[in-house]
Records
---
Amino acid sequence: MPTSTARVPKRNKRELEKFRRLLELKKVELSSELAKARSAEEESNEESTQDIADKAVSSYTREFLYSLTDGERTVLLQIDEALTRIDDGAYGFCLNCGTTLSDKRLTAVPWTPYCVDCQELSEKGLLEG
Ligand SMILES: [Zn+2]
């Protein structure tokens, strides 16, 4: 836990509520994207039994939608985790090194679990767990 390594000023309630709003807005946005993608998929399924050409288009669309929603699912998960951290009072710290995340970073990517350095490590696959 970050509190054991450094004495950091707690974010005030108003700041936390600001980030909570950002997170919830993004969540709504992504959820409606997912719902749209799902209904598009259902429509293409209904029409795809007609002939082979339709089927090909449908499977291409399905693959595209799948990869799209996969990435969005990850962000949705991170948003839920960030909202949990707000409730726990653990929001705004890097999950790896415990450093305080800057307001600039949190405003740009409110659901991020890591500081810039650790994010880089994570993207290179160098971060454990
Ligand atoms: Zn870090």
Note: The pocket of zinc ion is lined by residues 94, 96-97, 99, 114-115, 117-118 (CB under 6 Å).
---
Amino acid sequence: MADAAMYAALRRALFLVPPERIHTLVFAGLRGVTAPAALRRRAERTLAPADPALASTVFGVRFPGPLGLAAGFDKDGRGLNTWGALGFGYAEVGTVTARAQPGNPAPRLFRLPADRALLNRMGFNNHGAGELALRLARHSPDIPIGVNIGKTKVIPPEDAVDDYRASARLLGPLAAYLVVNVSSPNTPGLRDLQAVEALRPILAGVLAETTTPVLVKIAPDLSDADVDEIADLAVELGLAGIVATNTTVSRDGLHTPGVHGLGSGGVSGPPVAQRSLEILRQLYARVGDRLVLISVGGIETADDAWERIVSGATLLQGYTGFVYGGGWWAKHLHDGIAQRLRAGGFASLTDAVGSAAKG
Ligand SMILES: Cc1cc2nc3c(=O)[nH]c(=O)nc-3n(C[C@H](O)[C@H](O)[C@H](O)COP(=O)(O)O)c2cc1C
């Protein structure tokens, strides 16, 4: 495809610039070109999912297409008008924390080109829940915007519940859905909050603050037993769903030279794909249609996306695939999903969800 070849050339140039710097520049450029309404509409006409078969209503919210931008790209919701124009069916902004914080010292984002992957230890750099709330309040959405909330670094674990509740109180009324992030490897102790004794009061507290659908985002490094326990807890508490998965702390199977010298952080992209798919299958077998499953982790191609859908994912997300795939990435995936829906004789996306598991 001509645009894929063009982006491959552009990517070589972009990859000459340090990763966080180019992220800032490209993001600013994308915001700039989608700021004038006329240009935004034009991009939308080319890139947005138009096939009605791709649309679905999930927890009462209408999604024009199943592929969304994963959390972390737009931490502060600065591109609320950008993601629909780039063809995403929705975007998850954040992670934001109750208090603004700077994140970890740079360098904290690295490319693993031989693995088509990224390694990051950003550490929830963000301007805080209050600033995002103001932005969301001023915004009229063209696509659903989910909000991902995390724990402020300086808050001790025993006060985590109040910290999450503060963000949920502010942001719940402004979000299409809320995600409780307990799975980033880059805030010390955060992933310990996935233990059900710690997770229960956090999720119950967030649910008490809002009528907006609440999901929990889990790590790929959990054991199968932990995944089942969290799934059961989510059903018991009446959560809307689970986002699986975040980045992995594993360095197994990586090919990029020097990766072991880069230090700590979470790896995203193809190295996390297999575990992300396994967890999705396990979750779907455990909870079926009682929870909405959002699959994220290593989705690169339409085949990957389709495999997640037939394995039980109602919605999908990507970050690393977008970085390596470019501006037409969301469109290619949506087009590929629409083709597979037709080839499989499915009238709607919802009919395809979990169809491989149902046999
Ligand atoms: C640079 C970077 C920053 C991220 N920041 C966040 C974050 O703030 N919150 C979060 O829940 N996930 C964050 N993620 C994880 C992604 O949302 C996603 O779960 C993960 O990258 C796997 O998807 P992918 O393989 O499509 O990238 C981040 C990922 C990257 C690469």
Note: Residues 70-72, 75, 94-95, 109, 118, 120, 122, 124, 148, 181, 184, 217, 246-247, 268-269, 272, 296-299, 318-321 surround flavin mononucleotide (CB under 6 Å).
